[in-house]
Amino acid sequence: MDQAGRGYALTDNMGFAVRELRSGRESFSPDAAYYTGPLPANLMKFVAGPPDFAAEVRSESDSGPAAEAEMAAKRRDYFEAGTAVVWDVDPRAGVVRSYRPGEPEPAVFAAGSEADAEPAVPGWRLAVDWLLG
User: Fold this and answer.
1) Whole-model pTM above 0.70?
2) Which CATH superfamily is domain 8-132 in?
């Protein structure tokens, strides 16, 4: 539980089960997430429902048109499931792109700034330099 008692910060070891989406996807396993619902009694089980916030960190091979299309499809799935904010953490470009449903362009956070995950994680900020350092 976070300090405000609102939710849980979770790592990539946590899976989220969702209703079957139009793409056929039924689960997510983001690199990091924030979730305000109840956790399963057995933490080896999937959380029931989507994360409020999800962070996806690109690997070296996650660049180019095919990777961009794949990332966009994953974001669409997150938003269809009910996730409020998705971060695309791009170490090669040195930025964090913060996407919200219904907004055509992401907020872009670069070195020297702090990225937020509003409205999914109210008041929380993370230094981009620390994240990408």
Assistant:
1) yes
2) tt1808, chain A (3.90.1570.10)
